[in-house]
Amino acid sequence: MKSAPCPASGGRRRRASVAIRHVKFSLLALTFLLASEMAPAGTAVPTPCAVDPLPAAVESASRPTDGAPEAASGYTPKPPVRSSRAMIVAANPLATAAGCEVLLRGGNAVDAAVAAIAVLGLVEPQSAGLGGGGFLLAWNAKARRLTSYDGRETAPLAADPYDLLRIAPDDPSPPLPLTVDTAAGERFDALRASGRSIGTPGLVRLLERAHAEQGRRPWAELFAPAIRLAEQGFPLSPRLAAVAKPLTRWLQLDAEASAYLLTPAGQVKAVGTILSNPAYARTLKELVSAGPDAFYTGPLAHALVARAHASRGADGTPLTASKLADEDLARYRAIERPPVCAPYRAWWVCGMGPPSSGGLAVGQILGLLERFPLAQHPPAAGAEGGLPDAQAAHWITEAERLAFADRDRYVADPDFVPLPGGSVAALLDPDYLAARSRLIQDERSLGMAPAGTPLAAAPQYAVGPEIEEHGTTHLTVVDPEGNVVALTASIESAFGSFRMVGGFFLNNELTDFAWEPFADGMPVANRLEPGKRPRSSMAPTLVFTRAPDGGLGEWQIATGSPGGSAIIPYVTQTLVAQLDWGLDPYAAAAQIRVGAFNRPQTWIEDGHPTPAAALVEGLRARGHEIVRRPQPSGIATVIRAPDGALQGAADPRREGVALGW
């Protein structure tokens, strides 16, 4: 009997030209051929996991100069998807389809995640790829074991704490290229265009370790979808084009990037243009034939280091070279870290620990909210999740301020900066959080919150600056055996360091370190140091019931989002919407975004279809300084419904879809 097909997510489809229809047919045929080649002899070939390879058109696009984590790309409603066996949600339809096919062929959640992220590195190169890193959370249903893998980039061993500020101790000039325009993020873009922003990539080692320990299908098989798409081409998506348009100046510094994405006149190629990437196909084939070591030693590794060391742009612009060396790549290891699990009402909420602040900050926020009756303040009824209640939004954003205050003082790479008490326990202690939550007043915002003193210890580190992290991608997978993967990956800002090698972009993750290593006469925990991993906000998250013995029960929610520092508020709001307000996964993903860092400003999403005047007025009455701006979250959620079925939802603000079978 043939397996049931993976239905499309039901999102609004873009009217296609004859050329795009031809591409769509070719890609669907390609998927079918892939399934045929992957199937064992004598096995019936399943119906392909059909998707539209060209997502809905971007309605608006903007450069993230106003503090938003990434460029906005419009809003396209997408009904949730229901299935009985398996589900995958990823940030681009072609990546979702690749993971879906692996599941249909008997692969498990880890296998599907590897296939999907390999395709995302091709079709969403602005957000993630082999030149970056990530964090992976995996639930093994049979072993009842939750594992978290750290594939975060590392600073070069030759790094200096002041590398982001000066060329050398005897040359205080900022890293090149120079820019006379310090407005609109130009200084930051100039820094990331220098080699000083590039960390040792960790994604390949992350995938290698997760697959070796928990994968099922052969490693080589999982890259077939990405290799075929790279060779035969795929249509340039509306979001990729929109994100590239304000960055053409910087993309032109790299000959490979410019040839790939820009016309000879220096403009972004038209949406729907068929992009092939033979260099990426060759890189993946090398990883297939020689294994992951080929990325960290040998010709590919040497080419990566050479590209990082480029001291001239394609147009002759002087650039400061990276300090990345062959030794940095050869020494890199992905690390298994203890997952962070925090209690929240009847559930356990689990995520990544440091060097990601995501799991710890989300856990703290929820712990701070325990004493507030959020269920009594649901959103006003309405489409797309309704409008959040102002009182509830006030409590949530105040808790976010308190959590970010602790994050900015204490959280960094734990191999360099131990947490108070040596673990997350002190920062998640219920008594500590209860005392901190009493700082939250019902009718008045804190504006900026002080960091706490867990264990009553004198702080050893200064409060670090509020670092605005940028782009990422996220995918969530559940397989027929009940195994779950939540994977968040990144190259930091759009197109990373703008340097392309082997068909992928190199990251600019070192800009996630504090640029100033000292403040108030004390070191900053998240300062740049040789071999250190920069702090992240990535927050792949799994929610479990509480078992009778107090341990992890059954998984209920798997979610995560791109969005830089805003990932933490995005994921928190999504969880509260489902756990406290009973929203379905799509309504929780679609709801108008409201959140805060540890600043006086509270942001409310601009461009959402829900009128927000009542929310704005309610928060202003409580002393919030309101900022309206786009909030391009990318929530990708799968839940286990009460009847045991799976429900998947992709964020309406991006190109992703959910597929199930």
Question: Order of strands in the sheet with the most strands?
Answer: 1-22-21-17-16-9-8
Helical proportion, percent range? 25-40%
SSE-based structural type:
alpha+beta
Largest sheet: 7 strands, antiparallel
In terms of quaternary structure, the protein is single chain
The rounded Rg comes to 23 Å
Overall average residue pLDDT:
90
Strand portion: 15-25%
**Uncertain spans:** 1-46, 59-67
Shape: globular
> How many beta strands in the DSSP annotation?
23
Total of DSSP H or I helical runs spanning 4+ residues: 20
Measure the end-to-end span.
14 Å
Write the layout of secondary structure elements.
Blueprint: H1 18-38, E1 81-83, E2 87-90, H2 93-104, H3 109-123, E3 133-140, E4 145-151, H4 186-193, H5 203-214, H6 224-232, E5 234-235, H7 238-244, H8 248-251, H9 255-261, E6 274-275, H10 278-290, H11 293-296, H12 299-308, H13 326-331, E7 335-337, E8 340-344, E9 347-351, H14 358-369, H15 390-410, H16 425-428, H17 430-437, E10 473-478, E11 484-490, E12 500-501, E13 504-505, E14 518-519, E15 522-523, E16 541-546, E17 552-559, H18 567-579, H19 585-590, E18 594-595, E19 601-605, H20 613-621, E20 625-629, E21 636-640, E22 646-650, E23 657-660
Parallel strand pairs: 19-20
Antiparallel strand pairs: 1-22, 2-10, 2-23, 3-4, 3-11, 4-7, 5-6, 8-9, 9-16, 10-11, 12-13, 14-15, 16-17, 17-21, 18-19, 21-22
